[in-house]
UniProtKB/TrEMBL annotation, chains A, B:
One Pfam entry name: FAD_binding_2
Family matches, as InterPro entries: FAD-dep_OxRdtase_2_FAD-bd, FAD-oxidoreductase_2, FAD/NAD-bd_sf, Succ_DH/fumarate_Rdtase_cat_sf
Keywords, comma-separated and alphabetical: FAD, Flavoprotein, Oxidoreductase
Cofactor(s) named in the record: FAD
Coiled coil regions, renumbered to chain: none
Protein's name in the database: FAD-dependent oxidoreductase
């Protein structure tokens, strides 16, 4: 075999000298999508081999907080006394998908999400039916339900009745992703999926008709050919760790100083899929964030730019707020609070931001921050006047976080890029797929034998400005199942 | 031959029954890139066939104003007494390329742009050495030189010494592109390039090693195979006319109500290239604009959003200003002028915008526009106070357009999307190529036999927020020559 195997150049089947292994379904990656695909393919009676580049499974999901976006009346919502309707969840996810919305995909996910919740429970995942109302990225304990997006914010709340839909398995704090992956991997192993660790997929193997019939995989330092009679399923994550791909496709994500991913999120699944004729779409989009809460009290501040202008409703999801900074990386941004919330200066908050200035008066703060004289004072006066009346005519920030900042002294946190704060990011772009997980070429035609799911695809999450936590894992597990079933011939 | 020819599925050479034609260099598209490639390949002694889908050549360039970005001391600049240095042009183009900058490509273009100017003159293009200083999209007469970008604006002017670099061939008004194409096509024909009109390229033909050896082309309703011994050069334009591709790759460009292109800008060159293994990059980016000048006097206004906040230095290039609207399509935007420039209400300006309100005072205007009370008045007062001192602390708008708006009554033009103004757009994304025009796969490897130039590639223009008129045609003609030479084996 050529020593220059490249994902961009599939191996022709006639060049394969011998098969190292043969199976029905060959899955690349044992993260949320791959594990879900493996379980479903095994349930369908298929032989399943998973090749995982790392020495353990879990992927990026195992590193994540583990939110899963469910709604429309889940057992957890009902037990917490939360009313929700599938139609409101659908409306919300459509708004959250912005200009890149894929209506059929949103509909598919919403219509099947309650059954998918049950499926996860069948695999062994437990949800503690307790709702935490505070503005959080995740629950601190093992409670199962929070608001994980912009549902209560303008203009979403006017167009889709809000409900908390961020569900986490019963693990403390950020341990939800690890618990989910332990659960899924244990289920996949119980059902007889065979996992090869430290096995790196290198390129596809295609027959004369262009059908994908297997993969070249590096195992123990050797390039081996594995035959997939039914199909290959690419679940190898996104490309946030591949700076060259970011520069080519999503340059603004290079601004992130905190890539959210595992070291194998190098886009290899996408590149293998492209090599076999797949079309990668929406490659510029991603999740970008400034995780500025908790503490919840930070949300009571006003976010101003270096011109002293407010720029966003401060009660939005942290991803929506982070978008503002990513869109203007050379701009200064400050979160201004008054003395009522000075406790925020004592407890280091999640986002790692620092105090830029403190002032006895707003004029003093303005001077300390070197803002154009008069701008911040006017911005604050205008905000306070209306906030006292429960109004925010500029950005429609909502109670309970809408309060006049009228208790000097004032402080400002530096939210600028390069100012010390964390700016996490991961990619949304990937292979175009049918709702069954078939990889599509640029003409929308399915490539025989090739399937994909998770962040190797462009799935449910498509727009950073509208993202809600839980959309990625919901997408990866649900559409992972679909791809596994399709590869198994169901 | 299969009746379902698809650009995503190259034809295998072994399936070709007979060649309809054989040539050295086969070029798709007779726009600026294709014509330049044809001339250069003929000069190198190669047989050249061009297949053009339309019934005449010219492509989108023939519809354009015809600006070409040249600098560093062109004959036109020198004759007009303009000093410029290659290094300033390089610095400027790097800034103008933003996060997607390709330094080697900018360097290549700048270092060779004076020789490229001479090459265009050799083909028969004439430049009238007259500089027009007004803020224009193009000269009204046949004068050859204007500022065509953000060179004099903050922060560019501080980092690269400004010079006008927008060159137009000696044609009146918007006729520069047509003149350029007439000139290039006449030269190509004189040199013996053979053009097949109404001939539509459908997919590539590849041999066992993946080398591109020709194209399937629809001619007189029949699918014909054309053999290219040296190489195929894809110069088929961008994809602004393909709404499905825009949705997949550049959804914000769907907001444009004025696609700048010809009907064949459907991305066919990109899709044929992808089908042969090429990687399309930077697909989300494009030129977007609100052509709000001329009249120049409009630049003296202040642009505010629906919150009454200023958002940009109003003396920027129209593309930079248009970016603000494309980034916030649901936001309102108004250009506020005072009575000194009311003449702008009489002469219908280029951008097609309408008068949203007139007010005897700024407060009356604010009320007419239903802006949050007090915001616009403060914005204007702050602007006027500093403008009177020649300062714009917020956005650094420069003289000569920085003047207090202190002569009521006031008027506001509606610059919002959906408010009647034109929002032109075209695409920047396309095939990744080497500086010689070789099409590259996702691993950066050249695909043998396949070349591309112009908007089928991701070339010199890569960032809408920094674009200057003339970058596209400069890129298409220069790198078209490179691709033609490479395909001819030079």
């Amino acid at each position: 075999m050529s020593s220059k195997v490249s994902p961009s150049r599939p191996l022709r089947r006639e060049s394969v000298e011998s098969w190292h292994l043969e199976t029905d379904v060959l899955i690349v990656g044992l993260g949320a999508a791959g594990a879900s695909a493996a379980i479903t393919a095994r349930d369908a009676g298929a032989e399943v081999v998973v090749v995982e580049a790392a020495s353990a499974g879990g992927g990026t999901t195992a590193l994540a907080g583990g939110q899963i976006y469910f709604g429309g009346g889940t057992p957890t919502q009902k037990a917490c006394g939360i009313e929700d309707r599938l139609e409101d969840m659908f409306q919300y996810l459509m708004l959250a998908s912005g200009p890149s919305a894929d209506e059929a995909r949103v509909r598919e996910y919403v219509d099947n999400n309650l059954a998918h919740f049950d499926w996860l429970v069948e695999q062994g995942l437990e949800f503690k039916p307790e709702y935490v109302k505070a503005k959080l990225n995740n629950t601190h304990g093992d409670e199962g339900l929070i608001y994980s997006g912009n549902e209560t914010c303008y203009p979403y709340d006017e167009q889709a009745r809000p409900a908390p839909r961020g569900h986490k398995g019963k693990a403390k704090g950020e341990g939800g992703g690890a618990l989910l992956m332990d659960t899924l991997i244990a289920s996949a192993e119980r059902k007889g999926a065979w996992v090869l660790y430290e096995a790196r997929a290198l390129t596809s193997i295609v027959d004369e008709q262009g059908r994908v019939v297997g993969l070249v995989v590096r195992i123990d330092g050797e390039e081996r050919c594995i035959h997939a009679r039914g199909g290959v399923v690419l679940c190898a994550g996104g490309f946030i760790m591949n700076r060259e791909m970011l520069a080519q496709h999503a340059p603004r994500l290079l601004l992130s100083n905190f890539p959210l991913g595992n070291p194998n999120d190098t886009g290899m699944g996408i590149r293998i899929g492209q090599g076999a004729g797949g079309c990668a779409i929406n490659m510029h989009e991603g999740f970008v964030s400034l995780p500025f809460y908790p503490p919840s009290c930070m949300v009571e501040g006003i976010l101003v730019n270096g011109k002293g202008q407010r720029v966003v409703a401060e009660d939005v999801y942290h991803g929506r707020l982070g978008e503002e900074m990513f869109a203007a990386p050379d701009e200064k941004f400050y979160m201004v609070i008054d003395s009522r919330n000075f406790e925020a200066m004592e407890k280091p908050p999640l986002g790692g931001y620092s105090v830029a200035a403190v002032g006895e008066t707003i004029e003093e703060l303005e001077a300390e921050l070197a803002l154009p004289p008069g701008m911040l004072a006017h911005t604050l006066a205008f905000f306070n006047e209306h906030a006292a009346a429960g109004q925010d005519p500029l950005f429609h920030k909502r109670p309970p976080y809408l309060k006049p900042l009228d208790q000097p002294p004032y402080a400002a946190f530096d939210f600028s890029m390069g100012g010390g704060a964390w700016f996490p990011a991961f990619t949304f772009g990937g292979l175009d797929t049918s709702l069954d997980g078939e990889v599509l070429n640029a003409e929308g035609e399915a490539i025989a034998g090739l399937f994909a799911a998770g962040r190797t695809t462009c799935g449910l999450p498509r727009w950073g400005a509208g993202y809600a936590s839980g959309m990625s894992i919901g997408d990866a597990t649900y559409f992972g199942r679909k791809a596994g079933a399709a590869a198994a011939g169901c």
